[in-house]
């Protein structure tokens, strides 16, 4: 069963194994299980990772933006009946490019489109934007743990 859109933390925790402070999505606003998802993350000034990245100039680490994109992709895969309760793991991170600094107060919009799924392995095109400006893009390869 797919939750009613939009959905937030409680529904995400029913789908994903991630928990605070490593849940990098606030809400899912669009979802086509097995195909596509759009999620959001608002970067708050009190985020745990900003204290050290960087003192006096807080910037969201690129690897955490990639993690948010991966979690968005995991929602696409884990809402399929055959994958419920499983884990999705990174298989590769390809052609990732960072295009914009993301700061406290910014809301990232994560978009993931599944391109290929063969058995437990898949590939998705991802991007994140802030106010329509590209922040990061790339291709993620993943594996559904059997």
Task: Give a verbal description of the structure.
The protein has 146 residues and is α+β, with helices and mostly antiparallel strands. It has one domain: Thiol Ester Dehydrase, Chain A, CATH 3.10.129.10. Helix content is 16%, strand content 40%. The protein has two helices and six strands; from the N terminus they run αββαββββ. It has a six-stranded antiparallel β-sheet with strand order 1-2-4-5-6-3, with helices on one face. Strand 5 and strand 6 form a beta hairpin. It starts with 8 loop residues before the first helix and ends with a strand.
Topology:
Layout: H1 9-15, E1 27-32, E2 36-42, H2 62-78, E3 88-98, E4 107-118, E5 121-130, E6 133-144
Antiparallel strand pairs: 1-2, 2-4, 3-6, 4-5, 5-6
The portion of residues forming beta strands comes to 35-45%
Biggest pleated-sheet summary = 6 strands, antiparallel
Residue runs with pLDDT of under 50 for 5 or more positions: none
Overall 3D form: globular
**Helix count?**
2
- CATH architectural group: Roll
Indicate the radius of gyration in whole angstroms. Answer: 15 Å
* CATH fourth-tier homologous superfamily: Hotdog Thioesterase
Number of domains: 1
Overall strand count? 6
Distance between the termini: 20 Å
- Please trace the helix and strand order, writing H or E for each element: HEEHEEEE
Strand order in the sheet with the most strands: 1-2-4-5-6-3
CATH topology: Thiol Ester Dehydrase, Chain A
Helix vs. strand class: alpha+beta
Oligomer: single chain
């Amino acid at each position: 069963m797919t939750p009613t859109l939009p959905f937030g933390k409680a529904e995400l925790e029913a789908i994903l194994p991630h928990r605070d402070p490593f849940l990098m999505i606030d809400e899912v606003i669009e979802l086509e299980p097995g195909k596509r998802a759009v999620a959001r993350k608002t970067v708050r000034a009190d985020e745990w990772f900003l204290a050290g990245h960087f003192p006096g100039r807080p910037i969201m680490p690129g690897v955490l933006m990639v993690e948010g994109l991966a979690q968005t992709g995991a929602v696409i895969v884990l809402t399929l009946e055959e994958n419920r309760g499983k884990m999705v793991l990174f298989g590769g991170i390809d052609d990732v490019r960072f295009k914009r600094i993301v700061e406290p107060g910014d809301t990232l919009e994560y978009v993931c489109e599944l391109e290929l799924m063969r058995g437990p392995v898949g590939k998705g095109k991802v991007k994140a934007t802030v106010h329509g400006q590209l922040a990061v893009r790339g291709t993620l390869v993943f594996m559904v743990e059997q």
